[in-house]
Amino acid sequence: MQNPLIEVNDLRCSYGSFEAVRGVDFEVNEGELFALLGTNGAGKTTTMETIEGHRRPSSGVVRVLGLDPFRQRKQLRSQTGIMLQESGFAGDLTVAETVSLWQAMSSRRSDTGAALERLDLAHRRDVRVKQLSGGERRRLDLVLATLGRPRVLFLDEPTTGLDPESRKTAWEFIRELLAEGVTMLLTTHYLDEAESLAHRLAIMHEGRIAVSGSLVDVLSQERAQISFDLPSGASELDLPEFTGELDADQLARGHVHVQTSSLESDLRAVVQWQSAHQLPLLRFRAQHASLNDVFHGVVDSHRGQVLPFPGVPAVGGNGSVR
Ligand SMILES: Nc1ncnc2c1ncn2[C@@H]1O[C@H](COP(=O)(O)OP(=O)(O)OP(=O)(O)O)[C@@H](O)[C@H]1O
């Protein structure tokens, strides 16, 4: 039985006459990491800030742990951790002083030394915050947001500015929190981050969710691809029957490229054809769509269109097609 700790129903948020969030629905179940992705200005931060209780929705219902985050922020504070895009540290305090201050303000107890160690900041304990690098500050943000293990954690672009090694460390830390049962809502521009960490995700565009569901649900929105060089001596007439679409331009240049909704059956056709004719398959590739493909598909299919978009099926928070 799934237990939604974050519920968002028909959320709308406006800045004056501009509606930045235009009817967003999703749920985040207990122990799950849900990633909110999207184009610049899609409304991710506005959505996140509203769920965190920093902003009153124009309409719709938001619940975190069954509470209204705007009206019942105080009750929620002890159970939630928030990592904002911009940290509000006092630059003159050292890392250790900052952590102690945060700890003093929190009702949750935690092993701060271990957290600093875990995020590779222990050796920077006595350094003033203003002297930290951007990546070190981001890791300090993560330490502070997770002090005392909140039940629900909001991570707004947590690894922006981190080098690849630090990102890896941050991901491992986030996975450890997941293993401990912390429920998380993450916004990120790094698609690989969502692919690696998220149980479910949504891609926002112009204030709406264009696609959402599990990674498998979302990836199935775009067709898979098979490609290889047309073997010398073989003509296009010799090719097997594909259920997918063969790219005529690439074929004219001697390359077979098929976009297919049925990767397995088209792959079987290629293998049978290749073994029957004993042909070499040079530069052969077969792959499902990536999150990158889906993301670009969302943007392309919405380009120049007036909302709502007929091209892309809108999928509800649980992966159901609306
Ligand atoms: N304080 C504000 N006043 C007016 N418009 C705003 C304000 N904050 C955000 N907006 C607008 O609302 C829309 C959504 O912004 P938001 O920051 O939520 O998007 P985002 O998905 O987080 O974008 P990004 O990925 O670029 O951070 C944008 O068009 C933005 O310009």
Question: In a nutshell, what does this entry contain?
Answer:
By secondary structure, the protein is of the alpha/beta class.
3D structure, described in words:
- The chain is α/β, with parallel strands linked by helices and 322 residues long.
- It has two domains: 6-219, 3-Layer(aba) Sandwich (Rossmann fold); 223-296.
- It has eleven helices and 13 strands.
- Strands 5-6-7-3-8-9 form a six-stranded mixed β-sheet, sandwiched between helices. A four-stranded antiparallel β-sheet has the order 11-12-10-13. Strands 2-1-4 form a three-stranded antiparallel β-sheet, with helices on one face.
- The longest helix has 16 residues, at 164-179.
- The protein is elongated, with a radius of gyration of 24 Å.
- Mean pLDDT is 87; it is low at 306-322.
- The chain binds adenosine-5'-triphosphate.
Present as ligands are: adenosine-5'-triphosphate
* Assembly state of the chains shown: single chain
Shape label: elongated
For the biggest β-sheet, the strand order reads: 5-6-7-3-8-9
Task: Please name the fourth-level CATH homologous superfamily of the largest domain.
Answer: P-loop containing nucleotide triphosphate hydrolases
The CATH C-level class name of the largest domain: Alpha Beta
What composes the largest sheet? 6 strands, mixed
Main structural class: alpha/beta
CATH architecture of the largest domain: 3-Layer(aba) Sandwich
* First-residue to last-residue Cα separation: 23 Å
The overall pLDDT, averaged over residues, is 87
Which bin fits the share of residues in helices? 25-40%
CATH topology of the largest domain: Rossmann fold
Radius of gyration (CA) equals 24 Å
Number of helices: 11
Indicate how many domains the architecture comprises: 2
Q: Uncertain segments of ≥5 residues (pLDDT<50)?
A: 306-322
Beta-strand residue percentage: 15-25%
Output the helix-strand order.
EEEHEHEHHHEHEHEEHEEHEHEH
Domain ABC transporter: 6-231
GO molecular function: ATP binding; ATP hydrolysis activity
InterPro entries: AAA+_ATPase (IPR003593), ABC_transporter-like_ATP-bd (IPR003439), ABC_transporter-like_CS (IPR017871), ABC_transporter_ATP-binding (IPR050763), P-loop_NTPase (IPR027417)
Subcellular location: Cell membrane
